[in-house]
Amino acid sequence: MENRLEEITICPMTETDLDEVLIIETESFPRPWARNHFLDELNSPHAFPLVAFGPKNRVIGYICPMLVIDEGHILDVAVDKAFRGKGVGRMLVERVLLDCREKGAEFVSLEVRLSNFSAIHLYESLGFVETGRRKAYYENGDDALLMEYIFES
What we know:
about 35% helix, alpha+beta, protein-N-terminal-alanine acetyltransferase activity, EC 2.3.1.266, seven-stranded mixed beta sheet, AcTrfase_RimI/Ard1, YpeA/RimI_acetyltransf
């Protein structure tokens, strides 16, 4: 596994990455974002979407964070099914935490489906804590778990 992680590069997302990003998005979520949503993120002054390139310079994951004043927020993150459980998601979230800290964020927040145990475990292992719940937040009525990572002074 270590060799595979060494082949991963995290870079800013560009419009040329969107075809591959949309494949992962569609495979990952029951109501995936459309191309326009990603274009909005690419053009937002507050967003800094990233992609993870794997073997053969292929997009294997992405994350869409934003930073407004001192508040970071992760809007969307997904990893290609073939690379899940191999540390790609961790690398993406760690990069966002580093970038947000360097840009002066006090904390980073996110919402995660209450039934997404693997994502919740990842976030908890990185130091995110539960801050609340949003009832019936998702399209199928699932609750969202609100989580935050607070930077120490």
